[in-house]
Amino acid sequence: SIQDSEDRVIFIRDIKGDGREWTLNLYTTPIPGNITLNDSGVKDLSGAEIKSYKATLNVKDLERPSLLGYSGYGNTIVMEFDNEMDKTSTTFATNYLITFNGSQIPLPTGTNISLDKEGQVLTVTLPEKISGKITMIGTKNNLTSLDVVGLKSKSGNLTNPLILSLQFDETSTGDAVMVDYSSLNPGKQAALVEPDTIKLKFNMPIIKAAIDDFDIDNIDIDKVIANGTNIVTIILKENVTTIEDGTAYLVKRNNIETSIGTGADYGKFYVQDKLAPILVSREARVRKGYIEIEFSEELEKAGEALYRRDLEITRLSDNKILSSDDYSTWLDTRNPEIIIIELDDDKINSKYTIRVIDSPSYIRDLSGNLVLKSSPIETDDSL
């Protein structure tokens, strides 16, 4: 078994190799930090069991940052990266070359380079005039490209690819576009981070946005916040657990304004669920010899048999905490937000308390969000 630095289980996809060397392929990349590897029950070629082994390994952040998108308009170029960037390397003017009037030249004196507070949006503001000409990115005989090299993430990793080549032409309107909220969820430009809060990501800072700029089917919007970052916050009038695909829009006649004075392209945006499921039952229901507990949203079926490991069940007649091997779990077929628990030994008539343990590793929703810990709830009857 493998656990990451936050004590979450890392699932192994397969194990390959022979002899003395074996490779463990994982389903996900562990977060940087220490991971714990435990093995037991391994046998050698003679059938003898090898002594159990435990090791702590350090996982370094080797992910190279990538450019998610860029735009240029007037005298301003905005770039967005998928990792927090190193401020020192991004502010070296020698890391940039522009093509102006057909010739490649260094950044002119007076150019300002800045990172936003999250370290992912990089803005290059050029002088209003270069070589006596008004700077107008993308127009003929003006600034038509920017080559960038030597930029590093905060972890010290160079960009992928090493040289970033940004091209501009007459179609460079400078309008903001919605971009993926996370590189781990391509195609999802927004995230539901609270039951009433959506965060929508653009490729450049937004300084103005309003309720009328957005529409979500059958859901009313209470407030919209644009604070000069590339994230716009949409506050809903009601709590939800998910936003269905194809129901959220940035409307055509929107009045969004970017930091460089341009507008925003309209269209649908898709919302990823980042809400952790929670136990919503106030008491555990005893039904036909089984115990049922309900969560705030539909759970993933694939790991239902392991959900027992995230539950602590106490028999109240003698205050015994049951082993996770003393009961089985599965999801209700018709209502997959309900976990059904079957006790293996029901000879002792008693009520029980059930809670989600402090560091759950298995119970998760359809988006992969792990359940939150809970307080104990009591069964409504004995069994």
Helix and strand topology:
Layout: E1 2-3, E2 12-18, E3 21-26, E4 33-39, E5 53-59, E6 67-73, E7 76-81, H1 87-90, E8 96-100, E9 103-106, E10 112-115, E11 121-125, E12 129-130, E13 133-134, E14 143-149, E15 163-167, E16 190-194, E17 197-201, E18 206-208, E19 214-216, E20 221-226, E21 231-236, E22 248-250, E23 257-258, E24 267-268, E25 271-273, E26 285-287, E27 290-294, E28 311-315, E29 320-321, E30 327-331, E31 338-343, E32 352-356, E33 377-378
Parallel strand pairs: 16-25
Antiparallel strand pairs: 1-4, 2-3, 4-5, 6-7, 7-11, 8-9, 8-14, 10-11, 12-13, 14-15, 16-17, 17-21, 18-23, 19-22, 20-21, 22-24, 26-27, 27-31, 28-29, 28-32, 30-31, 32-33
Overview of the structural elements:
The protein has 383 residues and is mainly β. The chain has 4 domains: 58 residues, no CATH class; 101 residues, Sandwich (Immunoglobulin-like), CATH 2.60.40.1220; 84 residues, Immunoglobulin-like; 94 residues, Immunoglobulin-like. 1% of the residues lie in helices and 38% in strands. The protein has a 5-stranded mixed sheet, with no helix packed on it. Strands 6-7-11-10 form a 4-stranded antiparallel sheet, with no helix packed on it. A 4-stranded antiparallel sheet has the order 9-8-14-15, with no helix packed on it. Strand 26 and strand 27 form a beta hairpin. The longest helix has 4 residues. It is flat and about 90 Å long.
